[in-house]
Design a protein that fits this description.
Number of domains: 1
Strand order of the largest sheet: 1-2
Low-confidence stretches: 115-134
Order of helices and strands: EHEHH
Number of strands: 2
Mean pLDDT: 80
Shape: elongated
Distance between the termini: 20 Å
Radius of gyration: 20 Å
Length: about 130
């Protein structure tokens, strides 16, 4: 099963409201439901999916919407803005400082679904059951 996600725009919370944990919990619940339903095959037999691949397509992290860009004034060491040299070490350090909080706010369950190595059991894998589909 392939799930494609784009335009999450995860922010650090300094400028704008981050996506709530309950939204990620709802996503994980819907993902479980989709995987369960997809495990019922055309022959009416239940065969769990081999795996769930999640493709993070683009605009997942949003480093532009952060007040951390404004913590240094022009001329101060470490001054950088999104439109300055993106290859400068200061720019990389700033983007890393901004995006680290975003990744840590992802609830553990969803994070485990996204980061489970291929072939291992995952919290999102549908259970083995012997009930008829609805």
């Amino acid at each position: 099963m392939l799930i494609v996600i784009s335009d999450l725009h995860l922010v650090d919370g300094t400028c704008g409201k981050p996506i709530s944990a309950s939204a990620f919990q709802l996503f994980a619940a819907r993902l479980n439901e989709l995987a369960f339903n997809a495990s019922w095959r055309a022959d009416k037999r239940y065969r769990p999916l081999d795996g769930i691949d999640i493709l993070l397509l683009g605009d997942i992290l949003d480093p532009l919407h952060s007040t951390l860009w404004l913590d240094k004034s022009l001329g101060e060491p470490g001054y950088v803005r999104p439109w300055t040299d993106i290859h400068a070490p200061e720019c990389a350090a700033k983007v890393q400082a901004i995006t680290q909080p975003s990744s840590s706010t992802t609830p553990r369950r969803l994070k485990s679904c996204v980061t489970s190595p291929r072939g291992s059991s995952s919290a999102c894998r549908p259970p083995l059951v012997a009930v008829a589909p609805r």
